[in-house]
């Protein structure tokens, strides 16, 4: 074993230490030594990181690193700040916490041809904190087809070449060299203090001995053989009785393997690598060993790929992530043969609708159609609407619920909105009669209206506005509402038995934006809620848009639509959730709230189903009035809206139940909700251009009975 020294490690010098200062002074007087100082650039980059590092990191004392083989001294950030800045671009493919955990891993690499690529990949990624490198050979010109050295390294020990490369990337990585390589007798010493073993040597006796000793110690062994991107994994840490080389060569005698020439190794190599899986070019080359070529070939690109494969496997082991024993092939040629055109993006069709052409002529059908135009969470339309000449019934359809529809409270709001629309249309048609809301099957509310001959002018005047009512998610202009507008909206809620909490103060609106943004983040990161949210989206012309939310209605630009393709993926959300990250997931909601003139919250006097039906009637009334005043309206349902009890929030999102309860309390406080009240809906009011599309409705949720 050879101890680390200035032949391959940087000498780190602290100018504040008298002994180090003397060394630096001596080096400065040497005309052959070059000093490089770009510390200011490093510090500027450090200060620009997001989030900004702690003051203790920003103020960490720098060091001078002397590279004797280059006769160069470089000024660098101290170890903590250096590591933070150097590995910043790893985030969040490797999180800061994962990076710190990997820092405790020591990797031993035997064989520094392919092994150099492995060491390089591990160093670049910060996938370990210590490296033990073993190789007895020196770098030759014929090695430069695959070893990332230079002609200046010819004749230098391969382990030294690799160690110097590592030191020039990160002088804080601990590197120990075995310049005499590893043999059968020294395998045990080499493995002392090693967590993961990488075998890239050519000696079969060492390969077998390395595995037997690793198995005895419970250490995993990895090997990359560049042909067809083969990665071999033996998890002796998890399977202490696993046979070496997966049992493919049996229980061989190590002594018989020593000193075998290239050609003599071929039969065993073919057993280890599985002759039938070799590439045609490699198989043909093996036939020519000692005839027209001196040994088996290796390509630089394939060696680099092997380094990447091993580094990925080491990361999994170091982080305790799943990695089975076995082997896989990442065959570049196979993948290149499978090149295919990517699917072309489809332009979303124009979403304009001719409303007049869609209106029915029959008076009863007019009422039914109006009820069916009501809004509902995710446009699920959780109702069954039936009518005959005598009257109309709106029943809650529990099969169309979602997880956020706790206790069917959101569905009750939708039923109330449908009832309000039916009352408006019936009044306009001269059919208005008695209205009741009662408990039907399983205690779920049923709204009925008996057709009569009534006409309420207040309701009739809203008919055209009711037909025009739609969701508008466009960014708005936060032009303030006047007192007259605020009064009309408050009256619209009060007439339906609810109370309007109208928030117009800019600071309060910003606070609501932060609350709703965090709620959206939790919705994205909660698997059930994320799955249902993404399931609501419809992508025309591929999807029918008679239920769910047409993506065109989200009013996203092309960049946001592209981002949505990432946010749809559950494994991406799982990754963010594991880090409790994703603060940007609620940014769109926060931006839209910030562009609002006001936030209107419908408060109801209790939490019974009838209260939520009343809240739905009030919501629709306020919505119709707001749109008649020229305001754009967007409903927003925070995750906690219908979770009244703590246990219900726990069921909604076990991980985030406590934050949801806090957010609910904060919203109640900002909007001024009173004790005993519940919230039926949150509406964003703004001044904005008209929406791109309006939601369609399903015909099969409506039934016309024959009297």
TrEMBL record:
GO MF annotations in UniProt: oxidoreductase activity; tRNA threonylcarbamoyladenosine dehydratase; ubiquitin-like modifier activating enzyme activity
Domain of life of the organism encoding this protein: Bacteria
GO terms under biological process: cyclic threonylcarbamoyladenosine biosynthetic process
UniProt-listed SUPFAM superfamilies: Activating enzymes of the ubiquitin-like proteins, FMN-dependent nitroreductase-like
Matches recorded under CDD domains: E1_enzyme_family
Matching InterPro entries: Nitroreductase-like, ThiF/MoeB/HesA, ThiF_NAD_FAD-bd, Ubiquitin-activating_enz
Pfam families found in the cross-reference section: ThiF
THIF-type NAD/FAD binding fold domain mapped to chain residues: 88-228
Official protein name in the record: THIF-type NAD/FAD binding fold domain-containing protein
């Amino acid at each position: 074993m050879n101890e680390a020294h200035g032949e391959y490690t940087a000498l780190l010098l602290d100018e504040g230490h008298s002994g180090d200062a003397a060394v630096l002074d001596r080096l400065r007087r040497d005309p052959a030594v070059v000093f490089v100082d770009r510390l200011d650039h490093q510090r500027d980059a450090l200060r620009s990181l997001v989030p900004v590092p702690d003051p203790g990191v920003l103020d960490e004392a720098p060091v001078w690193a002397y590279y004797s083989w280059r006769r160069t001294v470089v000024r660098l950030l101290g170890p903590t700040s250096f590591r933070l800045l150097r590995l910043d671009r790893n985030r969040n493919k490797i999180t800061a916490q994962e990076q710190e955990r990997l820092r405790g891993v020591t990797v031993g690499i035997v064989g520094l041809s392919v092994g150099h690529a492995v060491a390089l990949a591990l160093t670049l990624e910060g996938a370990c904190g210590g490296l033990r490198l073993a190789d007895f050979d020196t770098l030759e010109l014929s090695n430069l087809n695959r070893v990332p050295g230079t002609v200046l390294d010819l004749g230098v020990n391969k382990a030294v070449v690799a160690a110097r490369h590592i030191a020039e990337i990160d002088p804080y990585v601990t590197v120990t060299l075995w310049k005499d390589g590893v043999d059968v007798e020294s395998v045990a010493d080499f493995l002392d203090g090693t967590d993961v073993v990488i075998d890239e040597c050519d000696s079969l006796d060492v390969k077998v001995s390395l595995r037997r000793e690793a198995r005895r110690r419970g250490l995993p062994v990895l090997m990359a053989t560049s042909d067809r991107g083969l990665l071999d994994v033996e998890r002796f840490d998890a399977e202490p009785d696993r046979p070496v080389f997966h049992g493919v060569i049996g229980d061989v005698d190590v002594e018989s393997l020593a000193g075998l020439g290239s050609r003599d190794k071929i039969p065993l190599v073919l057993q280890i690598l599985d002759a039938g899986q070799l590439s045609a070019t490699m198989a043909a080359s093996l036939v020519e060993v000692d005839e027209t070529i001196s040994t088996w070939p290796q390509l630089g690109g394939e060696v680099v790929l092997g380094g990447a494969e091993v580094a990925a496997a080491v990361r999994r082991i170091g982080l305790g992530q799943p990695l089975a024993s076995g082997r896989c092939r990442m065959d570049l040629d196979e993948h290149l043969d499978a090149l295919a055109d990517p699917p072309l993006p489809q332009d979303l069709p124009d979403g304009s609708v001719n409303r007049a052409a869609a209106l029915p002529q029959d008076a009863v059908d007019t009422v039914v159609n109006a009820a069916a135009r009501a809004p509902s969470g995710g446009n699920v339309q959780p109702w069954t609407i039936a009518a005959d000449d005598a009257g109309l019934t709106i029943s809650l359809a529990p099969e169309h619920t979602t997880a956020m529809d706790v206790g069917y409270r959101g569905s009750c709001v939708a039923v109330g909105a449908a009832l309000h629309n039916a009352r408006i249309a019936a009044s306009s048609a001269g059919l208005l009669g008695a209205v009741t809301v009662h408990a039907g099957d399983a205690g779920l509310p049923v709204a009925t209206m008996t057709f009569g001959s009534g006409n309420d002018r207040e309701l009739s005047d809203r008919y055209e506005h009711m037909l025009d009512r739609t969701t508008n998610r466009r960014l708005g202009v936060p032009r303030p509402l006047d007192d007259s507008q605020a009064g009309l909206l408050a009256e619209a809620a009060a007439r339906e038995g609810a109370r309007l909490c109208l928030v117009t103060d800019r600071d309060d609106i910003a606070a609501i934006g932060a609350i709703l943004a965090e709620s959206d983040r939790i919705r994205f990161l909660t698997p059930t809620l994320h799955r249902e949210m993404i399931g609501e989206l419809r992508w025309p012309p591929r999807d029918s848009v008679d239920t769910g939310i047409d993506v065109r209605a989200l009013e996203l630009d092309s960049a946001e639509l592209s981002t949505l393709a990432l946010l749809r993926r559950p494994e991406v959300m799982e990754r963010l959730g594991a880090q409790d990250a994703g603060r940007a997931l609620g940014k769109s909601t926060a931006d839209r709230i910030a562009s609002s003139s006001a936030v209107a919250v419908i408060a109801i006097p209790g939490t019974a189903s009838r209260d939520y039906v009343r809240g739905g009637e009030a919501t629709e009334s306020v919505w119709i009035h707001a749109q008649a005043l020229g305001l754009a309206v967007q409903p927003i349902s925070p995750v906690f809206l219908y979770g009244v009890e703590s246990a219900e929030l726990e069921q909604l999102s076990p991980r985030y139940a406590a934050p949801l309860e806090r957010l609910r309390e904060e919203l109640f406080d900002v909007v001024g909700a009173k004790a005993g009240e519940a919230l039926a809906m949150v509406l964003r009011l703004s001044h904005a251009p008209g929406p791109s599309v309006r939601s369609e409705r399903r015909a099969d949720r409506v039934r016309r009975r024959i009297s």
